[in-house]
Amino acid sequence: MRGAAAVAAISAVFAAGACSGGAAEEGGAASEPGSDAVAEAERLYQILNESWAIEDELLTIELRVAKRCMEDAGFQVHDPAVFQETDFSSYGTAGFLTDAPVRAVPTPEAAEEWGFGVWTEFVGNPGNEELAEELLTPEARAAFNMPEGDYEAPDESEWDAEGEEYQSEWIEAYTGSPAIPSDVKGPEPDFAAPMGGCELEMVETIYGEPYTVDIGGEGDSDGDGVEEDDESYTATHEPSPVAEIEDFEDYGNLLARLDGEDVAFETCLIDSGYEGWELGDSFYPPLWEYFGSMYDPAYFEQYGEEGLEVPEAPEEIPGDFMGVLELERAMAVDFAACGRESGLREAIVQGWAAILVEAYQPLETDIVAWQEKMQGHLDDAQDYLQG
Length: 387
Description:
- The protein is built from 15 helices and two strands.
- The chain is globular and about 70 Å long.
- The chain has one domain.
- Helix 2 packs across helix 8 and helix 3 runs antiparallel to helix 13.
- A two-stranded antiparallel sheet has the order 1-2.
- The longest helix is centred in the first third of the chain and has 38 residues.
- It is mainly α.
């Protein structure tokens, strides 16, 4: 696994780590919701943020060492898909609640300013450029876990101008294996081949040797009655212990920690005129579909999910983006009030904190040890580049 594929794998590791809870069932002591759990979750999440920053630094130094190898071999133009930096450290700037299901129960202050945040997924539509610049403040981006800036595709013009012969030679020098034809665009690396070339030289320079990551058997994953073999892949370096945590898709663990706050919340909504708005198992009623169909009617007419029960929209729907945003804000303020009155917001915050403590606390020693080990590799790589 190399280049862009390796970056994607690391992204998955950190994203899973930020929204996981499976480790609690495998040794993490049960943590009681409360202010102590919140404080501990905040402390542990800071350690995770430090791991993300180290991962950014590792990938940056890997590119610098590999680039020196390639340029020593006579290659001055590089594949931008391989030599791309990351910004994992910007993930989770909202703290331990980054992936918590609190969108339907915002704080009163957040509700007044940002509503439920549904608008963030539509403000980037064509025609909203000025609004996007105005509304997507650094604070809003952090609150909704958005990148600090809009994505910009890497400039491939110089790479494309070199032609397929140069690209093939570059790929072989970098990977150690001949390039293979691509049906999409030019030659591409043989990802099934063992690591070699300047990539391997880079790994040996920084880490000594590649790291084999064991994925484990998938069982009878294709239903043919045959157990699949264990699987593994080669990485440039040892992944963070956070990868050991299993991610979860449902919120049963959190639901089990509630003491009727969800029922009280829905009752409050009914009393406030919002009958039909149920939290559901994901703690997120169909707010995206409800407001999305107002922000972008054409999209939902073509791609809207059939059979999904969505409360009826108001008789008079604003015809402009800001009008819909004001409607979203007003509704969010009412939901926030019910979240406070019912105690649901606080119950989710404390329950989520307890879940994260159970997941991360057993791995803290290993995570810190990994950080120290990786910092040593960073220091060695810096010495190499300065030598």
